[in-house]
């Protein structure tokens, strides 16, 4: 259970990436995800790889830890590569594996798509590694701000998001506590026939729901007691502000993207 | 059943930036039939320690022995369920584990899981409900309609009904009214004596440790800081203050009184009345 928690978890190292404006980080990732699909030769891919690896180093998050966070996707990346090897039939035949021809185009495409996949996952995982959930919701609220004009409940959405994010660890902790308590009363969650194991979930779920509802009620009460009246006219404790390092990051990203767009093949 | 820890380490989330060593080279031996109080500042590793006792977690290094059962790193215990039947744990806020439709069914849940025959279960439910002071009229009610104190009693009855040989209590009286606290602690003590259990009590109340335990284990930052009889441990006021712990009020009072009268006044298990007599005698001496 503890190991599962690590995927996508915030790692405080207070690096320059951590201190960036979360909106800028999200915008950069958003456009990176779009523009990487324009890369089509060694130089343009090299530039995007450079950007992703450079950002990773700047976060100061231990490499071992990033690799661990990526474990579940390694499989997919390798699988994509192998699939391409056998399915794509472009270029010339390089050699045979188990009697199946491997084409040069297949090798190339497999490598390219796996690389792209890897870069996308790497850069997006940097967001959750370096940005607290609170910052992410603040950024979402700010970026979606213009939609308010169309009566879209931006503030409520952001509030829902931050409450859910806030309570995920609490619920996980609660789950662990209750499952410990029931295991001590002889419930076996891990072995036994499937039907038994499904039944074992009831003593876990009922207390979990009871406590979640209780928590929701308490939270609502506490918010009301402190005069919460929705987003209208509400000011913020943490103002998001774009400063020099954000501008520098943006410029860096734009230069690299522009260079990649210029150097890509147009034919 | 006696309990032995041999150089036990426990690390949460090993090999990650969140790595945290919650137990550090912990060794001690608790004889069968003893009543041990485990005290320590918050976060000192008390709850982590007791989770070893029925194999919920295994030591990262070292060895834990409970009777004939042995817990070692990397080796899955063979008789985990049998061990859990022998070691009953009352967790912090045990009422959070209630889930059945009726109080009766919830108390029967543990014994049923351990394969106790149906007739025997009925007997045990009635018996443990009586032991914790739950009226018969409550047995058919839903546990969620009860008061907090009653829910706590139901949860405790559910653990007693398994008839463990080792009883582990993690702050069993937290959040109860003073009267209820005393009732429940007296009840545990009675059962401890009657059934000759080995009992471990995690507590923040030095008064409880003094009143019920025959052995005190003081933890600090995952290490064993001190160990001994309550009198031995609580006589070391300064050492305890170092780890943010107080001594029981009785000890504080005796220290102050010794100062005042310029004569040593030791704790010898005296109750309030005996203490009053001692003080009267001292005051008489001074006036002469
Ligand atoms: N699931 C977990 N993952 C990571 N660290 C944990 C976990 N559970 C406990 N810890 C850490 O281990 C240390 C010991 O925790 P433990 O719960 O054993 O303390 P405790 O003595 O029972 O405290 P309290 O008196 O507050 O109940 C704490 O520093 C805590 O932060
Ligand atoms: Mg605890």
Automatic annotation (TrEMBL), chain A:
Tell me which Pfam families the record gives: CbiQ
Main location (coarse class): membrane
Q: How does it sit in the membrane?
A: Multi-pass membrane protein
TM regions (residue ranges): 29-53, 65-87, 107-129, 247-264
Q: Which UniProt keywords apply?
A: Cell membrane, Membrane, Transmembrane, Transmembrane helix, Transport
Q: What does this protein do?
A: Transmembrane (T) component of an energy-coupling factor (ECF) ABC-transporter complex. Unlike classic ABC transporters this ECF transporter provides the energy necessary to transport a number of different substrates.
- This chain belongs to the protein called Energy-coupling factor transporter transmembrane protein EcfT
Species this protein is from? Terribacillus aidingensis
Its organism's taxonomic lineage begins at: Bacteria, Bacillati, Bacillota, Bacilli, Bacillales
Gene name tied to this protein: ecfT
UniProtKB/TrEMBL annotation, chain B:
Q: Which GO terms describe its molecular function?
A: ATP binding; ATP hydrolysis activity; ATPase-coupled transmembrane transporter activity; cobalt ion transmembrane transporter activity
Q: Where is the ABC transporter domain?
A: 3-246
Question: What's a single GO CC term here?
Answer: ATP-binding cassette (ABC) transporter complex
Alphabetized CDD domains for the sequence:
ABC_cobalt_CbiO_domain1
The record's keywords, sorted A to Z, are: ATP-binding, Cell membrane, Membrane, Nucleotide-binding, Translocase, Transport
Q: Does the keyword Mitochondrion apply?
A: no
Keyword Protein biosynthesis among UniProt keywords? no
Q: Which residues form a coiled coil?
A: none
Its predominant location is membrane
Membrane-topology annotation of the record: Peripheral membrane protein
Q: Which NCBIfam families match?
A: ECF_ATPase_2 (TIGR04521), PRK13634.1 (NF010155)
Q: Which family does it belong to?
A: Belongs to the ABC transporter superfamily. Energy-coupling factor EcfA family.
Q: What is known about what this protein does? A: ATP-binding (A) component of a common energy-coupling factor (ECF) ABC-transporter complex.
What name does the UniProt record give this protein? Answer: Energy-coupling factor transporter ATP-binding protein EcfA2
The protein's organism comes out as Terribacillus aidingensis
Source organism phylogeny:
Bacteria, Bacillati, Bacillota, Bacilli, Bacillales
């Amino acid at each position: 259970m503890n190991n599962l928690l690590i995927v996508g978890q915030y790692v405080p190292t207070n690096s320059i990436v951590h201190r960036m404006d979360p909106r800028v980080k999200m915008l950069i990732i958003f456009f990176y995800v779009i523009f990487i699909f324009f890369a089509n030769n060694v130089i343009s891919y090299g530039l995007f790889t450079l950007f992703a690896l450079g950002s990773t180093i700047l976060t100061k998050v231990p490499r071992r830890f990033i690799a661990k966070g990526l474990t579940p996707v390694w499989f997919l990346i390798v699988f994509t590569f192998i699939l391409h090897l056998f399915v794509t039939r472009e270029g010339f035949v390089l050699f045979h594996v188990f009697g199946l021809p491997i084409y040069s185009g297949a090798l190339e495409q497999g490598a390219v798509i796996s690389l792209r996949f890897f870069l996308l996952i790497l850069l997006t995982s940097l967001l959750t590694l370096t940005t607290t959930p609170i910052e992410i919701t603040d950024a979402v609220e700010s970026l979606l701000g213009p939609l308010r004009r169309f009566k879209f409940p931006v503030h409520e959405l952001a509030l829902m998001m931050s409450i859910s994010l806030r309570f995920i660890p609490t619920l996980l902790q609660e789950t662990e506590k209750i499952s410990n308590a029931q295991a001590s009363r002889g419930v076996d969650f891990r072995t036994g026939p499937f039907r038994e194991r499904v039944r074992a979930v009831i003593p876990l779920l009922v207390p979990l729901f009871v406590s979640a509802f209780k928590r929701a009620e308490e939270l609502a009460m506490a918010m009301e007691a402190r005069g919460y009246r929705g987003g209208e006219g509400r000011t913020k404790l943490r103002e998001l502000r774009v400063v020099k390092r954000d501008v520098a990051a943006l410029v860096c990203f734009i230069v690299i993207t522009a260079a990649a767009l210029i150097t890509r093949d147009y034919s | 059943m006696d309990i032995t820890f041999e150089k036990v380490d426990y690390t949460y989330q090993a090999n990650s930036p969140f790595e945290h060593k919650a137990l550090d080279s912990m060794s001690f031996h608790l004889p069968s039939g003893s009543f041990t109080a485990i005290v320590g500042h918050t976060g000192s590793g008390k709850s982590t320690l007791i989770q070893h006792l029925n194999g919920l977690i295994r030591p990262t290094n070292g060895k834990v022995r409970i009777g004939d059962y042995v817990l070692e790193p990397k080796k899955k215990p063979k008789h985990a369920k049998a061990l859990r039947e022998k070691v009953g744990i009352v967790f912090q806020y045990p009422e959070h584990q209630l889930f059945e439709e009726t109080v009766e069914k919830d108390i029967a849940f543990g014994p049923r899981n351990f394969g106790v025959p149906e007739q025997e279960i009925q007997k045990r439910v009635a018996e443990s409900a009586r032991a914790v002071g739950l009226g018969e009229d409550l047995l058919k009610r839903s546990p969620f309609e009860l008061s907090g104190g009653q829910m706590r009693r139901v949860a405790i009855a559910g653990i007693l009904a398994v008839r463990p040989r080792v009883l582990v209590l993690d702050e069993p009286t937290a959040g109860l009214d003073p009267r209820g606290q005393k009732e429940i602690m007296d009840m545990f003590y009675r059962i401890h004596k009657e059934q000759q259990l080995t009992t471990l009590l995690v507590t923040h109340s030095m008064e409880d440790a003094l009143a019920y335990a025959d052995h005190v284990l003081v933890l600090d930052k995952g290490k064993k800081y001190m160990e001994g009889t309550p009198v031995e441990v609580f006589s070391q006021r300064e050492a305890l203050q170092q780890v943010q712990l107080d001594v029981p009020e009785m000890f504080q009072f005796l220290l102050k009184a010794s100062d005042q009268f310029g004569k040593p006044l030791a704790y010898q298990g005296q109750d309030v009345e005996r203490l009053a007599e001692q003080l009267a005698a001292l005051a008489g001496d001074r006036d002469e």
